[in-house]
Write a structure and sequence with these properties.
There is one protein chain. Helices cover 83% and strands 0% of the residues. It is mainly α and 126 residues long. Helix 2 crosses helix 3 and helix 3 (75-98) packs antiparallel against helix 4 (105-125). The protein is globular.
Length: 126
C-alpha cells in the first residue's frame, strides 16, 4: 500500500489541530505587531481593519499550508477545513467574550470567505 493511503483519521485530526494551533500562534504574533504599529504610527481605524483582514488571510494561509504538508492528500480540501475551522473558532470566541456579534452579516460573510480562501490557497501551494 502507498504511504498516502495509510493516513488514519486520528492523524488527520492531529494535523488539523496542529495547523489551527499554528494559525492562532501566527495570529497572536501578527496582532501584537499590528498593535505596535497602531501605537507607533497612530493609524486610522480603516487602516487597522485592513491589517486585521491581512492577519486573518496570512494565518489561514499558513495553517492551510501546514495542514497540506502534514496530510499530503486533497491538500486544498484540508486547507479549506482549516479556513472554516479558524473562522468558526474565531466566531465562537467572539460570541463568548462579547455575547453578541460586533459586525454585520456582510462583514461576517466577507471574513468567512477570506478565511476559507486563505486556507484553501495555503493547502494548494503546500
Amino acid at each position: 500500500m502507498d504511504k498516502k493511503m495509510k493516513f488514519k483519521s486520528n492523524d488527520k485530526l492531529a494535523a488539523v489541530l496542529k495547523s489551527l494551533l499554528c494559525s492562532y500562534c501566527v495570529t497572536g504574533i501578527l496582532l501584537l505587531v499590528l498593535a505596535f504599529l497602531l501605537y507607533r504610527f497612530r493609524w486610522k481605524e480603516s487602516q487597522i481593519n485592513v491589517g486585521i483582514i491581512a492577519v486573518y488571510v496570512i494565518a489561514t494561509l499558513l495553517g492551510g499550508f501546514v495542514c497540506g504538508k502534514l496530510v499530503k492528500v486533497r491538500k486544498f480540501l484540508w486547507g479549506l477545513v482549516i479556513g472554516v475551522s479558524y473562522f468558526l473558532l474565531l466566531l465562537a470566541v467572539s460570541l463568548i467574550v462579547y455575547r453578541t456579534l460586533q459586525q454585520g452579516g456582510i462583514h461576517l460573510l466577507t471574513t468567512f470567505a477570506l478565511c476559507m480562501a486563505g486556507g484553501m490557497l495555503g493547502g494548494m501551494i503546500s
